[in-house]
Structures are given as structure tokens and as C-alpha cells.
Specification:
It is a single chain. By secondary structure, the chain is an alpha/beta fold. It is built from 8 helices and 11 strands. Helix 3 links the parallel strand 1 and strand 2. The relative contact order is 0.16. The mean pLDDT is 93. The structure holds zinc ion. The site of zinc ion has 8 residues, from loops.
């Protein structure tokens, strides 16, 4: 299954405003005062977009027709790396929890489009320096291993600054609930020596959210959890050495 099918089949209604309210409020108060027009790239089901639309002139872009059904602002169905709009059309280009989902090629094209369409500001939010391998699932049918929320990469401030190197960083901060990092060396041991059914315990992702679709073979299954003492020992070791971090990283850039 390609990514396109994956995001059409995604349960967009499961993203609810209440869960994201603190984040939406933080976004609103962080927008520079001279912004009137906003382009929201990778708007998903519009939880943030629709609130932005009450305060600004907003255009939203997503490649999922299913996701766009929830969006109440101007909207365009388009891939983020090839947006059919004129250069420098928006005071601010906003993109929240998009970049971590993109393959290398699409990421490169998307960053180019964000820069091309922004007249002045770029506002990015991503998970804060997470280790996406923390939430690995193995498909029981084809053995493909993938990250549960489809995160392909992670960013810290240094990486974001490198992506937008010709821009000036005017504000950045981390925000949100504290989530524990997973040490890559311990994770390697876990992957090698323990069964995949023990990798994600129920206190990381609860039973109601365990339904998943393999991005490789489209197998829909429930990611069962089975206790394993070695996994638990490794997870405990990780708790002792890995810090908890705020879940999100926000960065606002200005064209120089
Ligand atoms: Zn599979």
C-alpha cells in the first residue's frame, strides 16, 4: 500500500479538538502580530486549521480528500511538495506534525514549497527529538517493521535550523506532555533479542488504539501485547538512563 492509500484509509475522525486544545492555544498566541494570511501545509483534519480560520485568512493543503472533508477554510487537495499556488502568497506558512511523516524526497520538495510560498514567516511544529523506533510494530503477515504513528524521522532544533538555514529563527520552544526518550542502543538490543509482541506495552498505547494497518501489505490487525521479561528489563534500564522531554518542538522563522 502506498502512502496515499494509507492516509485515505486513516481514521481522521479520531483526531479530536479536546486532546489538542493546549497546543492549538499555544500556536495562536505564538503567531507574529503582523500576520493576516496563513497557508497550512499538511492540515490533516483541520483541528488547528479551523481555529486559525476564525482569526486569520487561511488556506489549507492536504493530499487526503478524506481529511479535507473536516476542514472549514479555503482548501486545496495537493501533495505538500507541489502546491499549485503563487510564490510569496502568504504572510506565514504553517506546518504542524507533517515533516516527520515524509520520505526524504518529499521532505526536500515540501521544504522548498514552504519557502517559496511564504512572504515572511515559517511556523513549524514537530515531535521534539523523539526516537521513532520506540513505537515499532512488526506485521505478522509480511514481517515488515514500521513506526505506529508513521513517523519516519525526527527533528531537534539543530535539524530544523539546518532545513531553513537561510531564515532567521525568531522564536522556538518545546511544549506539551513529557514523553520519555528511548535510548537507541537499548532499542537495538530489544529489537534483536525480544519478540515484537512485547515491544509496545499497553501503558504506551492502550488497547482501544491498537488497530493498525501494515503500510507494506495492507494487513489490518490488532497489535497484541505479550509480556516478556527481557523486554521489561530493557525498558526499565531505559527509564533509568533516558530523560523525559516535552512532546512538541515549535520553531518560527523569518525571511531575512
Ligand atoms: Zn504487512
Amino acid at each position: 500500500m502506498d502512502n496515499k492509500t494509507f492516509y485515505e484509509k486513516f481514521d481522521w475522525a479520531s483526531f479530536k479538538y479536546d486532546a489538542l486544545k493546549p497546543k492549538v492555544e499555544k500556536v495562536l498566541i505564538s503567531i507574529p502580530e503582523d500576520v493576516n494570511t496563513i497557508l497550512d501545509v499538511g492540515c490533516g483534519n483541520g483541528i488547528i486549521t479551523n481555529v486559525l480560520g476564525q482569526n486569520f485568512e487561511v488556506t489549507a493543503v492536504d493530499r487526503s480528500a478524506e481529511a479535507l472533508k473536516f476542514v472549514e477554510t479555503n482548501k486545496i487537495k495537493s501533495s505538500a511538495d507541489n502546491i499549485p499556488l503563487e510564490s510569496n502568497s502568504f504572510d506565514m506558512v504553517f506546518s504542524s506534525e507533517l515533516l516527520e511523516h515524509l520520505t526524504e524526497n518529499v521532505l526536500e520538495g515540501t521544504v522548498k514549497e514552504i519557502k517559496r510560498l511564504s512572504k515572511k514567516y515559517i511556523f513549524i511544529t514537530v515531535p521534539n527529538d523523539e526516537n521513532p523506533d520506540k513505537l515499532l510494530i512488526k506485521c505478522p503477515k509480511c514481517n515488515y517493521i514500521y513506526n505506529s504513528p508513521s513517523h519516519l524521522r525526527s527533528f531537534d532544533l539543530k535539524k530544523l535550523k539546518a532545513l531553513f538555514a537561510e531564515y532567521k529563527l525568531i522564536n522556538s520552544f518545546t511544549f506539551g506532555k513529557k514523553v520519555r526518550y528511548y535510548n537507541p542502543a537499548i532499542l537495538k538490543l530489544k529489537r534483536k533479542f525480544t519478540p515484537s509482541t512485547s515491544w509496545i506495552p499497553y501503558f504506551w498505547i492502550d488497547k482501544s488504539k491498537r488497530k493498525t494497518t501494515c503500510p507494506k501489505c495492507e494487513n489490518e490487525f490488532e497489535n497484541e501485547y505479550k509480556f516478556n521479561p527481557i523486554t521489561t528489563a530493557l525498558d526499565t534500564l531505559n527509564v533509568l538512563i533516558s530523560p523525559k522531554k516535552d512532546y512538541w518542538l515549535f520553531a518560527i522563522f523569518e525571511k531575512e
